[in-house]
Task: structure prediction
Amino acid sequence: MYAITGITGKVGGEIARSLLADGQSVRAVLRDRAKAADWAAKGCAVAIADMGDAEQLAAAFSGAEGVFILPPSDFDPEPGYPEAKRVIDSVTSALIKARPQRIVCLSTIGADAPHDNLLTQRTLMEKSLSTIGLPLTFLRPGWFMENALWDVAAARDEGVLRSFLQPADKVFPMVATKDVGRVAADLIQQNWTGERIVELEGPARVSANELAQTFATVLGRPVDVEIVSRDSWEGLFRVQGMKHPLPRIRMLDGFNEGWIEFRDHGRSAVKGNTPLLDVITALVAGSKSA
Result:
């Protein structure tokens, strides 16, 4: 049996569906009981647990052959990442108590970055879980293609893609969440010892120019890239409601300046097979039905 956290999200849902398709037993670890019925109908056992409650998590992980950890995302963390640390302590304690046969944790590109930034929350998770002494895989995907959801409205209505990733012709490692879930499902069924890091990106790296051109293809209208000046980022993020924008700014700096990158620039990374065109097509179609 495989215990899957974050199952209501894109990655967690994909790994659960992949495991079920492989004939595996899945325990859906959910915080909200109201969301349990759909997964129970798919054949999952259900455990209710908050990621910040070590006792609940330990019970949810008990008897599991494998556990998939998907830490909740905090895009506006307080200084020092107190909420992330609370969850990390809870998850670590639960895994020590439950002692599953193996663990796959969704981490990120940049978990080994030399400078503090938004992704440091995953650095802290990796550091803590590395102490528990169980077979452990950190899956480090690149930038999610689905982040382009935030660009759909401007591309469709204005013919503009406002890019924080820059310069416009620089290519970045991106990957579809579908590929992340599928790879995670494969990894968690493998047998290994010790700790390993698996990096994952899509079939090709993507620039802002290529992202705009893909939107143009899907929308059937020209889409131009508009670079968002770094000097404006803090003000923009604060207008959006962020109280602590510096970690997000530094993450973007890391991608743009190249210090958030895979260890050998992706040469050894696993490659997903979902093209950007498929993801943008789905995002645009979803925006029409919303």
Observations:
- The mean pLDDT is 97.
- Residues 82-98 form the longest helix (17 residues).
